[in-house]
């Protein structure tokens, strides 16, 4: 197989499609075929180009030139000038502008963004996600081949265990140990589930892998299946990831056609089938047991644990549930050996972590860096500093269920160990970076509104607690709060943490309690003075003050 | 075994036991709300959370299995605080509009589990309760179930009860978070969501969010009376809730030693209004011409006049005596709803006082007796196995000619439960669609009346494939050759033509039956001839499913005491206990006890009696407790025959179609007003206890029969049903050990009960009354 000499990417996000990117794509294919260049030049699509108005855009590699906006009429010029003659068509080159998503990383390689350590996202943006050939050229299926021909399942597990890989879904459970449990569990058949129900607000790390490098997920699941002795697997993908679904479907199909998936993989006596299952918009289905219930066709509500999925998972059989990011780490580990992985991260937290940076920083998007760097580094280097005029106030880590980290903790290294010690959860790797224009009451209200809406209603503490907490924060934000309700937040929040059935209820009150811990004065100002420092809360109805509490504003 | 410590008690329990059950085994009580022992654990309410030393968080006792060396605290101050917190949260979502009524006043519901717990744990209900309602009270049009979502705490017991007890899946939880609520179907009404109104959801509801609509305003009962349901042969045990002499509610008890436990069907739970129906007879009534001593009017029978009991009974006795003296025939028809004691008296009245064998159950007018044919093939006059046993042990069900979920709803639901839980395979054969088919692995849609051919076809395939049970054939060789000759004629091709069931389905059915052992055959009144019964008996002989748990031939008797009526000799051919009238030995005992000879030739069956009444051969009919016109498939003929009959005595509760043709009406009472026994389809003899006084001047049938008997013959001094049962026990070997005392003590007895010390026979031995033989399963044309 020959590697193409050029790669042309056409943006196909909804906005581009609306502006005719599909016509551009077809015209490019026709034009290239017309010049008999289809063997040399690959045409593919790229989604998630960020918020731009000059769409659709066309990128040509290896030069990395971005043309925009492009219509089907421009295609002929592009092909003849750029792809055949090798001249950049100045008149069509897009404006330089700040953008997010995949384009931002591409720019990173040209030196605009600081260097990252890419293991999980190593191929994302480089390969055509819809081509198995392209994947194979870029070390694809080398890991599975090595596992199947040179290693026993036990050796695979030992290697993963030795690497120190921990689950990237948030809990940080050692992956090797999980696989060991599943392998040793009674019952058959066994299952592998890839948890791709990435619903944590502001988290898009898995999406990058699914949309940008779907084959690596398929390969990783096949390796996992070989290791634990599973014959079937499910990918439970968030329903809104339509493009991801399509690409995974295509990847599964192509892998099956080549004998890399299905019966007799690599001609060996090893069968593995993958079923793709789209979620239906419930946040709770990202919880592994609710996800399993959902796969079984039931209402997505978490199960009681124990028994845990490794012994009693989907259809009551031993099941390994792994996050997308976790799985994406597996092929490189197998390819290079567990020892190799030790060079990244810290002693107790090996490897890299994919973070989604959002909020009031100059760069927002997805980065992959070694575990153990500090928040300050992320903000200053990768986020390129706070937005003009802003000063760091707080960071929420790990999505809605994560903790609120005040600016004072920004020098704590971000790894499982140190953060656990600091009482902070690393969670999904979302980093919501807020400056002083953010009101903590409003933030808490927004977070609680989310939980209040997403609670599955199975258990009482979560169902009633999320609602009551939201009510309280809403009251405070419109100037009807009371000091008693602050005490209620503490006690109710603690009851929720202790008595809830699953992680959602257990962590739903974390953010609001953190806010009370670090920013109590600001919350009290809302209640006592009817003042929102950040000017976010609309405290319109004049609060009814007791005479001795009345203040002059 | 796993060793653990709960509070201060060290114990060993089996692996997989939950903390809750482990605690219960040493008498430690952990309160629960969403948990119910009949339902799968859910773990939603978190009320049973207990402290486990070493665990990060408290664990719910209802669904956490014990672990070695676990140390559990069930009533530490922390745990009590958890419970209070949960109760406060639950109450914050609970709003009681106060529509319950007590002594005429509207009150809050204090008789539900949630409120009782709140009081126990010192949570003030008034302050913790929601301040406003969120939903419509009584929001569902179901006539029996009251839905008030304001009181719902989302324990989802109703959802699980509907799915796991009734197998109907009407309820589910919908919406999320605080908006979550229970909904019927796709948030429509219960009946539109395939609800069968069994009321299981109501029983399991811990807050009164679901309630019995007919009873919501009725208040607390004065007393509960345990009795036996009067609808079908299953024989559910129920408690009549009585207040001020009225039945206000029907409940049942989990540990009542009954087949049904907490479960009942719509008929048993809600069909009690007939007891207080305004059209009931309050006094005996006779036609005016009889009082005046005139001849019967040419058209119709004239006016009905209220009289006292003596007058009415004297008229009847006089007329019966006169007919007997004329050497003419009298026919006696008894309902399958009468008590055993009453059925026995009916049989005695006919055979002793009226000197005739013309006595039969009236139900034979409109359906075939389900057990017919079993006596001459297997020597059994009843179902061979028990309901519990079939449900729990059968590996396959073959249901033929039975609308299981409507005719025997509680048993039908149990069959569904076992199909869901144990994945039992079921074959349903029926000419029409029946609800139970939804659970069938295979449905056979055969042509009407081809049941025998269908079963013969299955046996043909079983023999062809060599799937028969060789041991059983060796054990019961009697008549096999003749039977096989018939079976050989029923090739799959021919059977497919006869029955309309494709041959491949026949093969599939035969394979299921042959590969699942034991398989139970169940049938109801859809089996319409003895040949089909023979074929089913042959099938079970062939498969070796007889005489063992989970198998057997199981005719499900339609009426609650069809079995008892047959046992008690309400039959033209059989004496109580299945002795034939032609058998001198069988007769002798009764002749001696009753002090008069019994006729040796079999009498007329009920169909023949009514016909003969029209022909003038039967001059008087005595109908006990049956509206034969309304239940008959040939009402026009019946009307003609009854009109022609010289003298019709009708014993009934309320005005009916048949009333028009009666000369004398003797008002009897419902099952709630009398004491005695019923025998269920599984031969279980169960007590009926009087709950309320007879309404008006109505009397229990046994009293009426005894009064009439007294006027006609000697030996009719009966003071109580218990005394009658003692007489039955003395004369009928299969009932020998049965007495009201034993039954009232809660003993569960299935006949034959050989002596006072014998505990009954759950599975009938083959050949109880005669030889076991293969029988001709084909009509000889």
Labels describing this entry:
heterodimer, A: 553 residues, alpha/beta, Glutaredoxin, Rossmann fold, Ubiquitin-like (UB roll), four-stranded mixed β-sheet, globular, B: 781 residues, Alpha-Beta Plaits, 4 domains, five-stranded mixed β-sheet, 28 helices
User: On the 0-100 scale, what is the average pLDDT of chain A?
Assistant: 88
Strand tally of chain B, please?
29
Structural class of the helices, strands and pairings of chain B? alpha/beta
Helix vs. strand class of chain A: alpha/beta
- Residue share in helix of chain A: 40-55%
CATH superfamily of the largest domain in chain A: NADH-ubiquinone oxidoreductase 51kDa subunit
Measured between the Cα atoms of the first and last residue of chain B, the distance is 66 Å
Cα-based radius of gyration of chain A, to the nearest Å: 25 Å
Give the strand content of chain B. 15-25%
Helix content of chain B: 25-40%
Q: Give the C-alpha Rg of chain B.
A: 29 Å
Number of strands of chain A: 13
Q: Greatest chain-chain interface? A: A-B, 29 and 30 residues
- CATH architecture classification name of the largest domain in chain A: 3-Layer(aba) Sandwich
Beta-strand residue percentage of chain A: 5-15%
Number of helices of chain A: 21
Q: Write the CATH fold name of the largest domain in chain A.
A: Rossmann fold
Number of domains of chain B: 4
Characterise this structure.
The complex is a heterodimer of chains A (553) and B (781). Chain A has four domains: 6-97, Glutaredoxin (3-Layer(aba) Sandwich); 132-341, Rossmann fold; 352-435, Ubiquitin-like (UB roll), CATH 3.10.20; 440-547, Up-down Bundle (de novo design (two linked rop proteins)), CATH 1.20.1440. In chain A, strand 6 (230-237), helix 11 (242-257) and strand 7 (273-278) form a beta-alpha-beta unit. Chain A has 553 residues and is an alpha/beta fold. Chain A has 21 helices and 13 strands. In chain A, helix 17 (440-454) crosses helix 21. Chain A has helices at 14-18, 21-34, 75-85, 102-109, 132-137, 142-150, 153-163, 175-184, 205-212, 214-228, 242-257, 288-295, 324-336, 338-341, 375-382, 416-422, 440-454, 460-477, 483-499, 503-507, 510-528, and strands at residues 6-11, 41-46, 58-61, 65-67, 190-196, 230-237, 273-278, 319-323, 352-359, 365-370, 392-397, 404-406, 430-435. By secondary structure, chain B is of the alpha/beta class. Chain B folds into four domains: 2-75, Ubiquitin-like (UB roll) (Roll); 100-276, 2-Layer Sandwich (Alpha-Beta Plaits); 285-367 and 561-721, 3-Layer(aba) Sandwich (Rossmann fold); 384-555, Dimethylsulfoxide Reductase, domain 2. Chain B has a seven-stranded mixed beta sheet, with helices on both faces. In chain B, strands 2-1-5-3-4 form a five-stranded mixed beta sheet, sandwiched between helices. The chains are: A alpha/beta (553), B alpha/beta (781). Chain A binds chain B through residues 282, 299, 304, 306-307, 451-461, 463-468, 491, 495, 498-501, 506, and chain B through 41-47, 49, 57-58, 60, 63-65, 82, 85-86, 89-90, 92-93, 153-154, 172-173, 175-178, 180.
